[in-house]
Each structure stands twice: as C-alpha cells, then as structure tokens.
C-alpha cells in the first residue's frame, strides 16, 4: 500500500494528490515542518502510525496492497523494458542495496587503456565516466575512443558517459619529439624554446607554446612543470632559448603546464592576457559537439562570462542535445570568482595539480573543501582530480598517504574521483581503479555505520516557486529515507533535475533514477549516489511504480517487502510503500 504526502499552502490548492482518507480536522494531524521554509507536510492518521512504527519497516497490510500486487502480476512487460548498468545490476543482486558505491569514478583514456578489452575492464571495474584529454592525441584517435565507449555501452549494457577535456590556452610544453615521457636528473641543463625544431630535435630541448616566453622570464625565476612535479631554475637567456637547470628532478610529460614563480610569488600577468578558450579549443569543442559527448570540461576558467558564452554556443550548435559544461578550478582567478563560476556551470572539477602550482601547497586542502562544499550547496556535481594515486603510474600499490587523500575526498562527499595519468599511461590502470572503488565503498560504509550525518544546511537554489517545492520534496524524502531506513529512493525524472536534488541530500540509501532518454541517463552517472535507469513512464505514478517493481523483481534487483520512497518531477509528491 502506498502512502502519499500533500503540500498545503494558505492561499493555494493542494499541489499533489492524496488517497481518500477520512476527513478529520487538520489540528488533529501530526505535522512535519520542512527545513528552511514555513511550509509543512500534513500527515494523515495511517501515515502517522507508519512513521512512528520504527520497530517495523513494513506498511500495514490491506486491500490496497493486495490490489497493487494484482496489478503487478497482471503486467506483461518483459525484463528488457528497462536499461541499467550491468555491473550495478550484478552488485545489487549479490550484495543488496547498501553495498552499492555512491562515489562515481572517472578514468582518463590513454595509451594504456585505449583498447576495447581494456575499456571493458575499466567499465567492469567501476568506471562511470571516460575522460578524453584533448592535450594529447589527434582528433581521429579521440573519435575512435568515443566510438569504442559507445560500442561498449551498446553491446555490454553499460552507461559510461564521455567527458572531453579542453587543452586551455595557458603556457605549456609541446610534445617530446614523439616520446611518451622524459626523465630529468638533478643539475641537468634543459633548453625551453619557442623555436620550431626539425627531427630529430636537439637533446634536452622542449618547445613552449607561448611566443613571448623568452621575453617574460628572468634569470633566477623558478619554472614549475606540471604543478611542480619537476622544477627548474632559469640560468640564461639566449634569443628565443631559455636555459634552465633542473633543481627537482622528475618525469616530464607532453603538453605539461608551465608556471613561473619570481621571488616567492606567481608570475601571472601574461597568463591573465591569454584567452580562456583558445582557437584550438574552439575546434575541439566543435568536434565534441559533433560527436555528442556528455560533458565538456573547460581549463583555467577565469570568470562566469566564459561559461555563459560557451553554453550559448553549444545550445546554438548542438541541435537539441544537451552537453554539460564542467568548470575546472585550477587558477588563482577561478578562486577569486568561485561562486559565480560554479553557479554558471553545470559542475566543477578541483584540478589540484595545476591549482597547487598557483597557490601555496598548504592552501590546496582548504581550497578543495571549499569548492566541494560550495558545489554541494549550489547543486552542482563536483570532481576531485589530479594525483590521487600518482605513485600507481609506476607501482602496483598505492601509498598510505594516497589512500588517506582519497578517503578524505570521499568523506567530503565529492560526487566523483578522477584518475589521470594513472589510467592513461600508468602500468596498473585497473589496480588503480580498484583502489578508488574499494576505498570509496569502505569510507561510505563507515559513514553510514557511524551515522555521520553532516550538519550542512542546504541553501535554497530554486528561483521559481515550483523549484522550491521540488527542493523541499527532495529534502524531506531524503530525511524520511534515513529515518525509516528505506532500502531505496526512486525518482522519475525526464530532465534529471529531481535526481540531482536528491543526490545533493546524500541520503544513506541508493537513489534509483529513472529517465526516458539515454543521454540524461549517462549524465546522471556523474552524480553521487544515483543509479540511472532508462525506462519509459507516464504521468501516472501508481502505474510507473507497478511497472518498475515488476521489471526490477523479474531481474532479481528488488524483492517483496523492500521499503521504497518515490518522488517524481511530473507529479510533485512523496510516496512511501513496500514492494508488493
């Protein structure tokens, strides 16, 4: 038997329907005050008894429940009427609702993981989003990767989304003459030049993409490569060439970012004059739109205007398809305009490598936490990236410090964690992914066992009255799910908005997000706690629930007696029921 809740306001009609309970004076009804609002949910006598029956999680039996079971048994919809990720389905069958991982995992695709079998291994291992980095490889290579991921989804039943990451126009190195990497040694002299070299290029020589590089640097400046993974000191300038002595040796990678420090301060004047989106980036963005990627990540975002301009451009050229824009927080300018950038974007990435090259290292942890919390407040998915398991590029086991770093990102309730070089060029990409997965599951389980419900007060993000109602419904549904120890939250959404509002609440139970389109399903795969399904449904919530129960039971993903709380963006309501 389902139970429904009804919003009442002093001057408006009811916003959603109730079963026909006996009419009793409202003063005799218990009332739940909704957070951050003066509105309340009125509880009917039968639902009130249910809410207070904490010792039992089964709803009272009755004719309505028998009738629902009859409807379910009469349905003839086959198990093929619903699409769900194959790995998630297996996890639910084997380990139950509480075992599902909530934190999403992103893998950068590179030479170590570009084969179809390797991509499948990552998907089986828990990859939710495949990232292609436009700093490396040709568009033809990236097109092949996109085709392979799409084929993987079609043939193997996955819903792996694709994120395209732009190069950005900041100062960076060129390639390494075809080499995948180059090692530096302490005291070696390297030449950084704006000249174009033939093949073979002189030994220990690196191209720089910025024509004014030799003019801007001064002898004595410190040159940081890839966020400080390698450091040089400028010793001499000879025309277009800059001679540098290696002071902190390490591994040089193609297209690595370069930052200059002078007298302990970042030299950022020239970077500030460069456009956020370069001419190459615009061509890559056109490529991403044509290929129908799910996300485009923009590097070195300085202001909200850049995001708004790009979203308008995508809307004009994407022919109705939606591509989410992710703002990468990796510069001092992005921190100065943090809230407006996040508000304008569809999500954010804490790119800690480049960010750590522009602010003191000791400030990176607090910047990360600030970005994660602000994204949560503004209902934007947030990704923690860069150097999560850097040692696993070369070694099969993560350091204990890296595991602690990953666990902190999970504890902060970030939506997703991202592997970069670990999966793109590392020797142990599958093992690195397994570490992220196991640490995420363990910390999430600890969080639930310790009842670590954070006291974060979620701010209102809706501007319209209907949006405010959706927020209050999701906040209340998540709170009810925790208090009643529900097995799952169901949300029926065509746009994904209601699902994201539920994800924002970070409930204890998993969120089954049912949507009608494949593209929305893939985009939801980035957000915390969401298990996205593709399912055709109507505006009739009872029919939707009965159909869903039938399909999921047929696949062994739920069982009779499971407690479900359901919401929908078609009919703004909360329904509480046991699976028939």
TrEMBL record:
It comes from the Eukaryota. It catalyses: pyruvate + ATP = phosphoenolpyruvate + ADP + H(+). It is found in: Plastid, Chloroplast. Gene3D superfamilies: Phosphoenolpyruvate-binding domains, PK beta-barrel domain-like, Pyruvate kinase, C-terminal domain. Its cofactor is K(+); Mg(2+). SUPFAM superfamilies: Phosphoenolpyruvate/pyruvate domain, PK beta-barrel domain-like, PK C-terminal domain-like. Pfam families: PK (PF00224), PK_C (PF02887). Keywords: ATP-binding, Chloroplast, Glycolysis, Kinase, Magnesium, Metal-binding, Nucleotide-binding, Plastid, Potassium, Pyruvate, Transferase, Transit peptide. Residues 101-432 form the Pyruvate kinase barrel domain. PROSITE patterns: ARSC. Pathway: Carbohydrate degradation; glycolysis; pyruvate from D-glyceraldehyde 3-phosphate: step 5/5. Its EC number is 2.7.1.40. PANTHER family: PYRUVATE KINASE. Oligomer of alpha and beta subunits. Belongs to the pyruvate kinase family. This is Pyruvate kinase. It comes from Gossypium barbadense.
């Amino acid at each position: 038997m389902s139970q429904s809740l009804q919003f009442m306001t002093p001057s408006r009609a009811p916003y959603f329907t109730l079963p026909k309970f006996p009419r009793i004076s409202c003063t005799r009804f218990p009332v739940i005050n909704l957070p951050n609002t003066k509105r309340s949910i009125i509880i009917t006598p039968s639902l009130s008894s249910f809410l207070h029956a904490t010792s039992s999680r089964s709803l009272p039996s009755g004719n309505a429940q028998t009738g629902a079971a009859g409807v379910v048994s009469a349905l003839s919809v086959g198990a093929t009427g619903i699409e769900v990720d194959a790995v998630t389905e297996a996890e639910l069958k084997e380990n139950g609702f509480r075992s599902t991982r909530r934190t999403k995992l992103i893998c950068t695709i590179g030479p170590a993981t570009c084969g179809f079998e390797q991509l499948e291994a990552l998907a089986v291992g828990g990859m939710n989003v495949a990232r292609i980095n436009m700093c490396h490889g040709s568009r033809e290579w990236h097109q092949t990767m996109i085709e392979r991921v799409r084929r993987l989804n079609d043939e193997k039943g996955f819903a792996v989304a694709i994120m395209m990451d732009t190069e950005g126009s900041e100062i960076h190195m060129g390639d390494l003459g075809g080499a995948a990497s180059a090692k530096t040694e302490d005291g070696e002299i390297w030449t950084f030049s704006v000249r174009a070299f033939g093949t073979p290029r002189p030994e220990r020589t690196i191209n720089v993409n910025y024509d004014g590089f030799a003019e801007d640097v001064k002898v004595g400046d410190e040159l940081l490569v890839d966020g400080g993974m390698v450091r040089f000191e400028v010793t001499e300038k000879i025309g277009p060439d800059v001679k540098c002595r290696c002071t902190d040796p390490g591994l040089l990678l193609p297209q690595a970012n370069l930052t200059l420090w002078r007298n302990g301060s970042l030299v950022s004047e020239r970077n500030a004059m460069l456009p956020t989106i370069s001419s190459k980036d615009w061509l890559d963005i056109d490529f991403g739109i044509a290929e129908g990627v799910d996300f485009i990540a923009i590097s070195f975002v300085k202001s909200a205007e850049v995001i708004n301009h790009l979203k308008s451009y995508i809307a004009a050229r994407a022919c109705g398809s939606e591509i989410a824009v992710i703002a990468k927080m990796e510069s001092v300018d992005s921190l100065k305009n943090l809230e407006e950038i996040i508000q304008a974007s569809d999500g954010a990435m804490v790119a800690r490598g480049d960010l750590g090259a522009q602010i003191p290292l000791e400030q990176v942890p607090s910047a990360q936490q600030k970005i994660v919390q602000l994204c949560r407040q503004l209902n934007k998915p947030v990704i923690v990236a860069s150097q999560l398991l850097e040692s696993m590029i070369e070694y099969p086991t993560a350091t204990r410090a890296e595991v602690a770093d990953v666990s902190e990102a999970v504890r902060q309730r970030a939506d997703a964690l991202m592997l970069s070089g670990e999966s793109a060029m590392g020797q142990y990409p599958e093992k690195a992914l397994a570490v992220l997965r196991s640490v995420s599951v363990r910390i999430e389980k600890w969080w639930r066992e310790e009842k670590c419900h954070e006291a974060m007060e979620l701010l209102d993000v809706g501007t319209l009255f209907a949006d405010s109602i959706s927020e209050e419904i999701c906040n209340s549904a998540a709170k009810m799910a925790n208090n009643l120890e529900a097995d799952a939250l169901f949300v029926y959404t065509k746009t994904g908005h209601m699902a994201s509002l539920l994800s924002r609440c970070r409930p204890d139970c998993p969120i089954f997000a049912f949507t009608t389109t494949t593209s929305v399903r893939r985009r939801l795969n980035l957000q915390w706690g969401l298990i996205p399904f593709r399912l055709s449904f109507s505006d009739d919530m009872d029919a939707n629930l009965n159909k869903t129960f039938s399909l999921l039971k047929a696949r062994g993903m739920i069982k009779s007696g499971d407690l479900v709380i359901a919401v929908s963006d078609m009919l703004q309501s909360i329904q509480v029921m046991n699976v028939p």
